[in-house]
Amino acid sequence: MASMKNNQPVNPWYGVDSPWLQQTRQTLASLEHTLTARENATDRMVYNAWFKTDKNRRELDLYKNRILPLTKSALDVSTREYETGSIPFSQAIGSYTDWLKAKLAIAQKTKDLGISFAALETVVGTSL
Question: Which stretches of the chain are DSSP H helices?
Fold first, then answer.
């Protein structure tokens, strides 16, 4: 190979368009694209898991702080009305059923919150 002074090659960019080098560049570009796609997928998974967890937490707070007290007060009113004879037993038991359904919904929302929180921890990969 011809060289110039200081032992440097005459054509220093020889082999730049070699097939193996082009293949390596294509592989690198493909891997960079795959990395970007996986980072975006991870971001979406974290966002979805966080959204579900936050939604379940807000629903649980709604049931505990708003719906349960309202059903309890409706139950108290219907119990007093039943005791005075203003409403039939079926209406009083309906209010009691609604209160029990609210309690059951709270248990369901608590379960859903635990499941979604565990899913969030799984997606994030660490204990929160």
Answer: 19-62, 68-84, 89-124
Tokens of 41: 């997928």
Closest CA to 125 of 56, 42, 40: 42
Q: CA separation (Å) from 116 to 38, 49, 81, 110, 120? A: 22, 7, 41, 10, 6
From first to last of the 128 residues of the chain, give the pLDDT tens digit: 455 567 766 666 666 778 888 899 899 999 999 999 999 999 999 999 999 999 999 999 999 999 999 999 999 999 999 999 999 999 999 999 999 999 999 999 999 999 999 999 999 988 87
Phi and psi, residue 44, nearest 5°: -65, -40
pTM: 0.70
